[in-house]
Amino acid sequence: MTQVQLERSEGTLFRFATAGSVDDGKSTLVGRLLHDSKAILADQLDTVTRTSTERGFGGAAGGIDFALLTDGLRAEREQGITIDVAYRYFATDQRSFILADCPGHVQYTRNMVTGATTADAVIMLIDARKGVLEQTRRHLSVVKLLRVPHIVIAVNKIDLQDYDEAAFGAVAAAVRRVTDELGLGAVHVIPVSALVGDNVVERSPNTPWYDGPSLLELLETLPAADDVATNVESFRLPVQLVLRPQGAVAVAPEDAADYRDYRAYAGQVASGTVRVGDTVTVTPGGASTVVTGIDFAGIALDEAVAPQSVALRLRDDLDIARGAVIGTAGTMPEPVKELAADLFWLDLRALQPGARVLVKFGTHTVQAIVGTITGRLNLDTLDLEVAPALEINDIGQVTVRLSAALPVETYAANRRAGAFLVIQPQDGATLAAGIVTAARTVAGTAAGTGGQA
Amino acid sequence: MRTPPVNALPAPTIDRAIDRAASTDSTGLSQLDVLESEAIHIIREVVAEFERPVLLFSGGKDSVVVLHLAAKAFWPGKVPFPLLHVDTGHNFPEVLEFRDETVARLGLRLEVARVQDYIDDGRLTERADGTRNPLQTLPLLDAIAAGRHDAVFGGARRDEDKARAKERILSLRDEFGQWDPRNQRPELWNLYNGRHTVGQHVRAFPISNWTELNVWRYIEREGIRLPALYYAHEREVYRRDGMWRAVGPVSAPLANETVVSRTVRYRTVGDMSCTGAVDSDAASVQDVVREIAVSTITERGATRADDRISEAAMEDRKKDGYF
């Protein structure tokens, strides 16, 4: 690896999101995690303590309502609920964390989707007294479809079940039935009390029957998504813009002549690794060429990995503009104009078949028409059911026709290349998060899904 | 190729970086590497998708870091957008000097919106408490409209404040410049949706995910120059609201406030009338990194009188179009 590497003490970055139903205690858990990892500074604690006292909060946590640490909006504090994702930052000796505290109310599921798309892990809270709820299943389905690398189930309020091993075991078994059904693979299940602090940062003496790590210990050791994906996903770089300064250079005057003909393709490595000398293919067009340089603001790198932002110099003068994708030769998919996708519908305006929308893949936005709605996911049975439209918070399967052929891939093969936004063409609203389930080189080859009403 | 990023100290930075780049025992990117690449990606997206971006530049450390990132994003070309400063008329003179030097060195264009002009002709009225931070919103919105800027880069970070913790990286403002926190666009993966209609604009915050410590470690690593008042120096100060206020033309002590000379530095740089200094011996960037790493108080808590007004002070100002 040839990244510009800092001293070891700086540590790596890990992003995680919280999920679960309302009142499961997500904000309290987050507050506890921040407090016990010494991430809450004195003036913040003062403010929260003062407000807690004013509101007569008397919990076992020494009179502090930890939820006040993250519920930052006026309406959130007034209603005692989390409306929008709150981002929090804390660090241990091992790692720095970006935490997206996501809302549990059904009407704010779209914010949970927001938090989960960038997460290396999702912590799913379950109230030990209530067990698996509809919202638990809904959020686990979201996590499954978005392929979040790690799932941690925190069975909260275990103190209110008198730290009973059997009660924990029953909830753990119920949640494992759902995760098995969804094909989620290995999940970590931890008994915690956010209010008291059991197994959040320190392993608790109150749960001697639990021999696993505390929540924080687990978060410190799980591999980040890009590390997981680097070895399995091929190199892709969606071109953001072409760097061609011509006269307007920022380099010293004596060097300006060296950059008169400079031309490089700027973008963030979406997946995989690229090295100088690699043969790459560019779409659209499908031409192949060789990487002659990888520039990072004046530093010439031998290689770049996701998620580095770099500029590639290529051997041949090709017609490459924003929206093009550069990828390892031999791995690039055929551009397609038709695809099947799962949509997380996030807008109050329902999706009707035949809707004209914009879709944004990487750095390319094109017009599109939603063909058919194949079905909607029933979150109780996890079956696909017939649906005439997709309403807000629905997860549905659709077919999409694109106005221009794009080198899309399935989300299962490549998370970045298979993810897209659905945008309302008039007001620009983000209507849905989309993930490609199948790309078709020939229109309508999949039976029953290519038709137009 | 050996030319360094524009705001950095020359050769040593690059040599150091190349030494690190040559080491082969690392298995991943450091958090600063990841945050830097994320910010550069955001800056490039905005420049690619918007017609007339502008960067809010005060000479404060966060906007200096964003400018440095922009310089790296477009190397070897120039930063392809102008800078905008809302001058409250109460700015520290050394910061204005730093601002002008930086602009000249990079060959960029600076637009300045002056709060004083608005007070002089009656469009704004001086507040009883003399604080001009809340008065910046109108000149800011007018300058955005006059420059027909459809994207406005800012150096705001989510760790600064509870309301900022909720804001998107690309944050849509309506034609009144207002932020609607209950109706924000979902932000998915690293796909930023910059669509907007006539009259709307987008605020873009490339260093949303950076903490104060990340910013200082980055300043250290990149050798980024800052106004001198970020480092420990002797200054005539007096105590008010639990912080040290500088003695100056717009921040005179009251009769019962004693002026003393102390070794202080600024953790944030804003309007002289409401920004406080902290006791500090941190004279170098390394000292500051060490100081921040063990600090038990947030930067806004330590230094900003305007955010102490109420728990939702920042949210209320942002809804009205503030930074």
Topology-level CATH name of the largest domain in chain A: Rossmann fold
CATH topology of the largest domain in chain B: Rossmann fold
Kindly provide the radius of gyration of chain A, computed on alpha-carbon positions and rounded to a whole number of angstroms.
24 Å
* Largest sheet: spatial strand order of chain B: 3-2-1-4-6-5
Bin the strand percentage of chain B: 5-15%
How far apart are the termini of chain A?
53 Å
Low-confidence stretches of chain A: 1-9, 442-453
Query: Biggest interface in this structure?
Result: A-B, 89 and 83 residues
CATH class of the largest domain in chain B: Alpha Beta
Overall outline of chain A: globular
Largest sheet of chain A: 8 strands, antiparallel
Indicate the percent of residues in helices of chain B.
25-40%
DSSP strand count of chain B: 10
- In the CATH hierarchy, the architecture of the largest domain in chain A is 3-Layer(aba) Sandwich
CATH architecture of the largest domain in chain B: 3-Layer(aba) Sandwich
- The succession of helices and strands of chain B, N to C, reads HHEHEHEHHEEEHEEEEHHH
Find the structural class of chain B using helix and strand composition.
alpha/beta
Helix coverage percent of residues of chain A? 10-25%
Give the CATH H-level superfamily of the largest domain in chain B.
Answer: HUPs
Tell me, briefly, the overall form of chain B.
Answer: globular
Question: Stretches of chain B where pLDDT falls below 50 for ≥5 residues?
Answer: 1-27
GO molecular function (chain A): ATP binding; GTP binding; GTPase activity; sulfate adenylyltransferase (ATP) activity
Domain Tr-type G (chain A): 11-228
Enzyme class (chain A): transferase
Organism (chain A): Cryobacterium zongtaii
Summarize the structure.
Chain B: InterPro entries: PAPS_reduct_dom, Rossmann-like_a/b/a_fold, SO4_adenylTrfase_ssu, Sulfate_adenylyltrnsfr_sub2. The complex is a heterodimer of chains A (453) and B (323). With 453 residues, chain A is α+β, with helices and mostly antiparallel strands.
